[in-house]
Amino acid sequence: MEMISRRKLASEKWCSVLCSVIEDELKNLPAKGSNWRICRASESIFEVHADLSVMVNLDKRFCSCYQWQLLGFPSQHAIQVIQHSGLCLYNFVDEYYKAEFYRATYATPIFPIPDIEKPPTGVKCKRCGCCDLHSRRTCKAPI
Description:
Blueprint: H1 2-11, H2 20-28, E1 37-40, E2 45-49, E3 53-57, E4 62-63, H3 67-71, H4 76-85, H5 99-105
Antiparallel strand pairs: 1-2, 2-3, 3-4
């Protein structure tokens, strides 16, 4: 419960659309591909010439390096294409990386479970009804 409370309070300080960790990750990725050449194949399909040639489809959120599909946010190739096209990067990140989704996750509190009296663990004797570590066969109570 303390962890949930800490995360909820920390998320209220965020000013970004995305969670802070993902925001930092996306800020660091564009520097890696600043010298790549981007060729438009169609309205939403691009080819990025890096060390290897990579295909990016913005409509299907697909990158042939498969990082976009695995992680849920654009790969470094897709980020270069999105910036080259003048589109908003936040529109291409999955919803569960957004701060609003994160806050909604921790909005509902988890209430503590009250202590419940545990039933007696000993086996009751069917003959006398006691739980004194004896059974019907070894019971010394009168019949």
